[in-house]
Amino acid sequence: MAEIDAETATDPYAEELARLARQARGRLESLARAGAVALPKSPELPAVSRPSPAIAPHDAEPAAEPPSVERPRPAPVASPVVERPRPAPPAVERPRPAAPPTPPRPIAAPSLFGSTGFSTPPLDPAERPAALAVLREEVAGCVRCPDLAASRTQTVFADGAATARLMFIGEAPGADEDRAGVPFVGKAGQLLTDMITKGMGLRREDVFIANILKCRPPDNRDPMPAEVANCVGYLDRQIEIVRPEFICLLGKVAAGTLLNTALSMGRLRGRWHRVHGIPTVATYHPAYLLRTPAAKKEAWEDLQMLMRAMGLVIPRKKA
To answer: pTM for the complete prediction?
Structure first.
C-alpha cells in the first residue's frame, strides 16, 4: 500500500488508475452483497485505436534511441487502497433570515379537559360523576382535623356538574352549608347564584362549586394553615377529575391558598392567573360583597373578563 501511495505521488496516471480500480471493486462488492454470482458477458465493442507501445516487440529491431517520455507504470489493483482524506473547504458564514415574530399567547386559552398541569390523562366525561362519588365518600369519612370532624354536622363536598367548564372555589362552609351539606346556600350563596344566573347567563347546575375546606370551622372563623394542608388535596383531586376550562377564586383565603401568595385581593383581581395550568380569575367573596356593596362593581368587572374568555355574551346596561 505504501508502494502504491508512492507511485500515485509521482506518476500522474497511477492516481487515475487507482481511482478506477476502487470504483470497480466497490461495484463488484455491491453486486456480491445483492446476491449476484456471475456477470453477463458484455457485447462486442468496436476496436479502439490504442497508442503504440514505447518498446517494440521482441522480433522487431530495437529503436536507435529511447523515447524521451517516461513510460507510465500500471498500478496493481490486488491490494486495497486507502483514500487520503481531503481537507474540507472553509465554511462560509451565510446570513440567516430573521425569524418571524412569535404571536403572543393568550393566557386565558381554554384547556378543554386537557390541562397541562396534571400528569394523569383526563377522565372520560361519562366516568367523572362516578369518580367524584368515590371521592365524596372518602371526604365524608375524613378525620384528619379532629376538632372539625367532631363539630361538623356533615362534610360539604361540592355542587354542580362533573363536566362543568367553570369552577368556583370558596374558602369553607358556613352554618347553612353545614346543615344542608351543599356549598353556598346561605345569603352569600344566593348572591353567588345571582352572579352566575343573572350576571353571566348560566345555570347554577352547569358550573361546579367547591371550597378549600370540606368542614365548617367553628364560629365561621378563617381556616387554619394545618386545616388547609389537611384538606386541600381533596380539592386538587376535584379539579383533576372535573378538568374545568376556567376557575374563579372567591375571596382571599381561596386565592392565597391556590395561588400561593399573600397579596391582597385588590392586587390579585383584574388579571389572569393559573391553577394547575387552568386560566384563573380571583375576585371578592360574596360574603365580602354583602358587607361592602361598593366592591360589587369591581367583582362585575372580573366576571366580565371571565365571560369574554369563555365566549359568553355580556348583557348591555339598561338605559
So the answer is: 0.65
Question: Which class for 99: exposed (0-12), middle (13-18), buried (19 or more C-beta within 10 A)?
Answer: exposed
Q: Which of 136, 139, 166, 168 is nearest to 152 (CA)?
A: 139
In a domain, 317, yes or no: no
pLDDT digits (tens, 9 = 90+) for 159-191: 999 999 999 999 999 999 999 999 999 999 999
Query: Which alpha helices (H) appear in 34-174, and where do they start and end?
Result: 128-140, 146-151
Q: How many CB atoms lie within 10 A of CB 78?
A: 5
What is the distance, to the nearest Å, from the Cα of residue 224 to the centroid of all Cα atoms in its chain? 36
Q: Which three cell numbers stand for residue 58?
A: 521482441
Q: Between the CA atoms of 246, 252, 258 and 262, what dihedral angle is there, to the nearest 10 degrees?
A: 130
Interval 46-76: pLDDT, tens: 444 444 444 334 343 444 444 444 444 545 5
How many structural domains comprise the chain? 1
Compute and round to an integer the Cα radius of gyration of the chain. Answer: 43
Tell whether 91 is covered by a domain: no
The three cell numbers of residue 235 are 380539592
The parent domain of residue 255 ranges over 125-310
Query: Residues 97, 16: contact at Cβ < 8 Å?
Result: no
Biggest CA–CA distance in the chain, Å, is: 133
